[in-house]
Design goal:
2 copies of one chain form a homodimer. With 245 residues, chain A is an alpha+beta fold. Chain A has 2 domains: 3-86, Glutaredoxin; 95-213 and 234-240, Up-down Bundle (Glutathione S-transferase Yfyf (Class Pi), Chain A, domain 2). Chain A contains 9 helices and 4 strands; from the N terminus they run E-H-E-H-E-E-H-H-H-H-H-H-H. Chain A has a 4-stranded mixed β-sheet with strand order 2-1-3-4, with helices on one face. In chain A, helix 1 links the parallel strand 1 (3-6) and strand 2 (29-31). In chain A, helix 1 (15-25) packs across helix 9 (214-220) and helix 4 runs antiparallel to helix 5 (130-157). The first copy, chain A, starts with a strand and ends in a 25-residue tail after the last helix. The interface between A and B is large, with 49 and 49 residues.
């Protein structure tokens, strides 16, 4: 049976971290919001789940995954659940908590990226919080992004199994998420990320390795990969970008 | 052997969600930063771990837990790891992903609480971002807090096993975290939370039930429970609080 992935239509957003894992594994899945309403799919079907007054443990927000009876919410949680089934989990059981810890640090930086353009109110227009967005973006570019990226680079280069993958000697979902993080940061902040390949050579090599994997390359070239745009988490507002020392 | 919990000294902060689980279970643990430097403990011991250039998978930030060879970071991840050992996990295996999903929604609101007083830069003084903090707090109180709390109340009242616990018919770590969330919100926003018990009666009953559990009551009365203060996640700045409709 297919997995059902629920996420907003028309953007990559947080759903993309789950999509990349499903695509790499060649798993069968339905992207519910993008399906036809006549087939019981579409954004309405997602909203029905979110606003249900009867489903126990309906999720707080997208993305969420339906696998038979189970509904699982939050990117890191979905990936931790899926990874063993998709062959994308670390081989040692204990390493799964290492993977989840790394993934939650990715969750954190992704949330901070969101707040660069929405530092005051998620539900209000960007234009109404532009000044705060500029201040927050300056801090993100100057302090937070280097802290996170330096951390991931350092973890990668210290992997006792070599720096091809972030954990162990096989591809995991965390590698796929790091690829997406770098893609997103480069899109949102082309000036601030200009020196990424020099500063974070191991992460850059990991990014390029993921991009070349056959299933990922095929997915990126497909219509299923919606380009980055101004509705997603990673948005390019030139006034929020800046050169770094 | 004792668990070692690493978190900043002098505040409850994110570490408190882990402490409550350890305390409820009566587990042996060392609160590393609060220990004496002469015993190899203290904040320095924590910073050594964080800044280590040799430990694989050193954490990005506190809290983290050391259990033998394993170092586990992020509150939700630590709790997911500990819960089965402490007897605080849901009884069904699949429900552990439900628990983790709920815990990650708690992580999200806790992060938003942090940003009410630090909406621009985590490393800068509150006083330097007070205007943005007021705007963000107004949105938090008016939009986000009711959305999260309404969600948790609705999940609790829909529990097929009754509304005593958030999952199933036994206490889990998520119940303890909900208690802490309510405690913190009441401390930070006494005006905005004045009607909590009327609006969220099931959550309030859950909060009171947790507070009365013998091990929790003993912990709360002990010196190990540091009072809320202006260094933690939940801070009381009267200018950020307001009455709600």
């Amino acid at each position: 049976m297919s997995y059902k992935l629920y996420y907003w239509d028309g953007l990559q957003g947080r759903g993309e971290f789950v999509r990349l894992a499903l695509e790499e594994a060649g798993a069968a899945y339905v992207d519910v919001s993008r399906g036809p309403e006549t087939g019981g799919l579409g954004t309405g079907a997602m909203l029905d789940m979110l606003h249900s007054k009867t489903i126990p443990y309906a999720p707080f927000a997208p993305p969420f995954l339906e696998d038979g009876e189970l509904i699982i919410s939050h990117v890191a949680n979905i990936l931790m659940y899926l990874a063993p089934k998709l062959g994308l989990a670390p081989q040692q059981e204990a390493s799964r908590f290492i993977a989840n810890g790394l993934q939650l640090s990715i969750t954190d930086i992704v949330s901070e990226v969101h707040d660069t353009h929405h530092p005051i109110a998620a539900s209000d227009y960007y234009e109404n919080q532009k000044d705060a967005a500029k201040a927050r973006s300056a801090d993100f570019i100057g302090e937070r992004m280097p802290k996170f990226m330096g951390y991931f680079e350092s973890v990668l280069t210290r992997n006792p199994h070599g720096d091809r993958y972030i954990i162990g000697s096989t591809l995991t979902y965390v590698d796929l998420s790091l690829f997406q993080l770098i893609e997103g940061l480069r899109y949102a902040f082309p000036r601030a990320t200009k020196h990424f390949s020099k500063r974070y050579p191991a992460l850059t090599a990991l990014h390029d390795m993921v991009r070349m994997r056959p299933n990922i390359a095929r997915y990126l070239a497909s219509e299923r990969r919606i380009p980055f745009n101004q509705s997603g988490i990673f948005r390019h507002y030139p006034e929020l970008d800046q050169d770094v020392r």
